[in-house]
Amino acid sequence: MNMTSVFKIHDTVLQVSYEARTLLPEMPIIKSENKLLSELVLCILSSQEKYEVALAMMKSLSKENILRIPKNKAEFREIKAEIKSTLKNPVCFKSNGKTYSRRLRFFVKKAEYIIDTLENIYLNDLTIKGILKQEDCIQNTRKNIISYSCGLGPKQASMFLRNIGYYSEFAVLDKHVIDYMRILGLTCVTDNSFSNMAAYQKIETKLKSYAETYNVNLLHLDLAIWTTMRTLKTYHG
Q1: Which tens digit of pLDDT belongs to each residue from 86-110?
Q2: Of the candidates 172, 167, 206, which has an alpha carbon nearest to the alpha carbon of residue 186?
Q3: What percent of the chain lies above the pLDDT cut of 70?
Q4: Which of 11, 87, 182, 189 is the most exposed place for a label (fewest CB within 10 A)?
Q5: Could you report the per-residue pLDDT of 173-214, keeping only the tens digit for each?
Q6: Distance of alpha carbon 13 from alpha carbon 222, whole angstroms
Q7: How far, in whole angstroms, is CA 156 from its chain's centroid?
Q8: Residues 86, 60: contact at Cβ < 8 Å?
Q9: 194: Cβ contacts below 8 Å, ≥ 6 apart
Q10: d(CA 145, CA 131)
Q11: What DSSP line would sit under 193-220, residue for residue?
Q12: What's the CATH number of domain 3-26+170-235, 3.40.50.300, 1.10.10.10, 1.10.1670.10, 3.30.2350.10?
């Protein structure tokens, strides 16, 4: 990629970042336990999956009232069976103006992740609200979310905490963000699957420093990179 193209991508991302700051100053704070659970499960579903597919599956779970907080072990068993049955079904979703239908990737494993997460939290008399209040340190809160949730790594935990309005300065280091950072020479990392939190935070710190240089926060920068890089990759096929 030539330098002219790099500068154009860089300028576009910054422009979109500033527009995002105006259109979406901050994420609305989610206080409902049911909505917090939905956001958490959506992050589990979207791991290694197109967001549109994950969102369609989340809507299917919500429409049938399958994803709910179990009141007891008997209801938990019912929910467990319903989740397994639903996740194996194809979902319809739209992408680039076209409608598609397919199964969720790793649907068996993700069903297990959701079920185990429900068990870890609600069958131990905990709530997501309670977990969010356990620590004063935001970094420890992110680690707590990962420890109580199954199938969630630093990227998905960061996305969850951002989307519920808990903290906007965590980076969501997906493939689009990593590609952008590599193009600009901010990192030589090529994989967005991080083996540990320390490795994740190292790259996150670089992106945060970059954001501070241009007076934008990670929420708006992340959204701008995701939108710009996704559009660019779609355009170039």
Answers
A1: 999 999 998 878 899 999 999 999 9
A2: 206
A3: 97
A4: 11
A5: 999 999 999 999 999 988 777 778 999 999 999 999 999 999
A6: 9
A7: 4
A8: yes
A9: 153, 154, 155, 173, 200, 203
A10: 7
A11: --SSHHHHHHHHHHHHHHHHHTT--HHH
A12: 1.10.1670.10
Helices (H), the chain: 3-23, 33-45, 51-63, 73-87, 107-122, 128-133, 138-148, 154-163, 175-183, 197-213, 218-235
Alpha-carbon distance of 129 to 30, in angstroms, equals 10
By C-alpha distance, which of 174, 175, 54 is closest to 103? 54
The region that residue 125 occupies, defined by phi over 0 for left and psi between -120 and 50 for alpha, beta otherwise, is: left
Structure tokens at 103: 């199964």
Task: Say how far apart CA 140 and CA 157 lie, in whole Å.
Answer: 11
Per-residue pLDDT at 113 exceeds 70: yes
Nearest to 105 by CA among 137, 169, 57, 145: 57
Q: Enumerate the CATH 1.10.1670.10 domain ranges in the chain, comma separated.
A: 3-26+170-235
CA atoms within 13 A on the CB side of 9: 23
Q: Is 137 left (phi over 0), alpha (psi -120 to 50) or beta?
A: beta
**CA 232/CA 9 separation, integer angstroms:** 9
The residue count for the chain = 237
